[in-house]
Amino acid sequence: MHGFPAALTSFVGRAAVVDEIAGQLGQYRLVTLTGPGGAGKTRLAGEVAKRVAGRFADGVWLAELGAVREPAQVAAAVAAALGIRDLPSAGAPDAVAHALARRQLLLVLDNCEHVIGAAAELCGRLLLGADDVRVLATSREPLRIAGETRHRLAPLTLPDPANPADHDGSEAVALFADRARQADASFALDAETAPVVARLVARLDGMPLAIELAAARLEALGLAQLLDRIDDRFLLLEEGDRLAAARQRSLAATVEWSYRLLDELQRRVFRAVSAFPGPFTLEGAEAVAGAGSGPAVLHLVDCSLLVPPRAGPDGRSRYVMLETLRAYGAGLLAEACEGDAVAAALAGYAVRVAEDALAELTAGTGAMGAGTGEVGAGTGKVGAGTGKVGAARWLDAEDATTRQALAWAMEHDAAVATGLAAALAWWWQIRGRLAGQVPLLREAVDRAAAGSDAWCLGHTWLGQASLDSADPAGALRHFTAVRDAAGDRGSFPQLARCLSGRAATLLSMGRVGEAADDARRALAVAREDDRPLAEALALAVLSLVACVVGDREGAVQLARQAEQIAADRHGPTTRVCGHAVTTVLIAVDELAAAERVCAAALAGARAAGDLWSLGNLLEKMVVLDLNSARFADAAAHLREGLQTALRTGSRARVLDDLDCCGYLCAMTGRCAEAVTIWAAVVALQGHDGFSVPAHPELPAGWFERQEPLREARQALGPAQARAAEERGAAMNLATAAEYAVLLTAADPQPPSAAPGLESLSHRERELVTLVARGHTDAQIAGQLFISVRTVSSHLDRIRDKTGCRRRADLTRLALSAGLV
């Protein structure tokens, strides 16, 4: 090996990559190793050279081009590295090829990117005139000549984000640990430090230079502070090896080296696309960076400033910019005073995507998105021409972009914020995120002009969210506001959907007559405006109304009509109507038909990732299981339903599932548990004792819990029944849900089994009880008159004693021991 510097640090990871490139050199005469600055191309090339040196009679030679400033000097620099003298001033590349014609060697050309044309010309001459010479080039972009094979160097492997403590096999963590021990001999990679290191190297994109610079700062900052300050990486990671090339002494220098090689248009596009917080399409880049920016985007890929496109969740090809490069781009945007303009363009793009996805949801139907669904893409707007993909999957892929755009719009452009939030609401619901977005949606709607389409759409979704939160009064306010806003405007897109929501709300409140009026009006509006999905929803609500008033035949007929209309659209409304049909068929004792409809809708919900429909349908499947005495199936479906309802934040669905759990316990002989669960349901619904709220329009027996509850209380006796009631009445929603999850376990432990509890002191048991009742550390501190730090310390000891790491585990422990 000739001209290679001695390696003063260990080579960590990438053994498979070394083998792969060594294999490519055996098959091809020119291999170009590409990747962004700081990816470790030079070091890797040296390792490959050591691996293959024995294949070449005249050895391996390194020609470092980083210091070459003029392309015309490339051939001379290579000749000097090879010991070739008396190079002619004209035709230097041919002269080098002639001098090497009878030699068998591997030439490593390092750092070609800034003289890429001259390096390509030289390699072309060598391939034609020196048959036994092979070239391994490193560059931030390929040479793009005939005979070249490329190997794009990926970042070091990272730990699984879901389990950062498990760092086995992570090259990035191994490199940090190795360099950290050089900087601070006391550093140890253990159960405490490993998760922090995993987060740190992930923030640094697994890039070797950034990791080595960060490790060098360990002694001065400490690991936790190093991670906390990594947002300022270009200031933090600025003092590297004094003997290294200038471009490799700091993180900023290595990125700047690549940026300076771009022309002005490419620089502007680089700055603009750095605003994307996640994967983006070529159409997205052109929307933000301007028309005609596509070729520049492709060049950024060639220059390793963008990761080559990969198919996203929606099937579209999407580019990614590493976080380090995005951070550098953000600084450049600020320097160029382009930040606001680019952010506005990004927000405008996000609005178009959300509105197009909403239009695709209802493509060919004229109906507003009803709350759940997926349909084909390709509307001729943003992202057109990529074929049929799901509208929901499209927004899955654009999630990071829409979130960032919405956050910006909330501060800078109220109209954009309202339109974007309203257009995203249907997707939030099916993905189980609507409850968590309610404050943001409410704030956005409050900024909109009253009565505008965005205002009406936003209030319609706030009404649905209130229904899911078991707040019918709030839902009625929102739906009524939209209805009243119609005024003299007549029909508008949200009116039919709003009237159906208002009818469902009134029905849940026992105001059956008013519900029927609104549902009939919704049906008339939907038919008048030719909105089939809205028509199907109105028919579904009317079927429920007919069921309540005892019109069995009419209920089934209306539900079947709704199902048929929705089925033709193959979207989420099919599942909404499937839920209504199932409900009606159960009520009229057509259980086999109900099960067929429910199973089909349930399969559709799973396939579409529709968590909202999934929770609704699982509750109906539990009812069907209980009717058929399939108690194991009922427990499994109930457990999944509870977990789904908790994930989506649907209080109404959790309460329904808890009610089902009471039936399951009563039917399996667990009387105390049934009384406890039903007491929790009644308390959480806000009623006194076990009385049913007065709904004069509902038929007698509509609430069927009373008889099995009476039998359970009678079996227990007054004292035990009262104790079970008191236990349930003291539970909050989370505690009751955890209790129900325990009761639906395949092999639930008896109440006396409480592993680890015997080792706790009286005060520690008290803390566990308060945790199980949903108290925060601050609330516990206030109640026990101790500091929050003391509470945290006590809880840490409790976790060590019991093995219960999460608050939910402590809740289960308290429930199993009867502490709550």
- Biggest beta-sheet profile: 5 strands, parallel
Radius of gyration: 33 Å
Query: How many strand units?
Result: 7
Oligomer state equals single chain
Strand order of the largest sheet: 2-3-4-1-5
Structural class designation: mainly alpha
Features:
40 helices; elongated; mainly alpha; two-stranded antiparallel sheet; 820 residues; 5-stranded parallel β-sheet
Could you characterize the architecture of this molecule?
With 820 residues, the protein is mainly alpha-helical. The protein is 61% helix and 5% strand. It contains 40 helices and 7 strands. It has a 5-stranded parallel β-sheet with strand order 2-3-4-1-5, with helices on both faces. The longest helix has 23 residues, at 339-361. It is elongated, with a radius of gyration of 33 Å.
How is this fold's topology laid out?
Blueprint: H1 15-27, E1 30-34, H2 41-52, E2 60-64, H3 74-82, H4 92-99, E3 105-110, H5 116-129, E4 133-139, E5 148-152, H6 171-183, H7 193-203, H8 208-216, H9 218-221, H10 223-228, H11 233-236, H12 251-260, H13 264-273, H14 282-289, H15 294-302, E6 307-311, E7 317-320, H16 323-335, H17 339-361, H18 391-397, H19 399-412, H20 414-430, H21 434-446, H22 453-468, H23 472-486, H24 495-508, H25 512-528, H26 532-548, H27 552-567, H28 572-587, H29 591-608, H30 611-627, H31 631-648, H32 651-667, H33 671-685, H34 706-716, H35 718-729, H36 733-743, H37 762-772, H38 777-784, H39 788-802, H40 807-816
Parallel strand pairs: 1-4, 1-5, 2-3, 3-4
Antiparallel strand pairs: 6-7
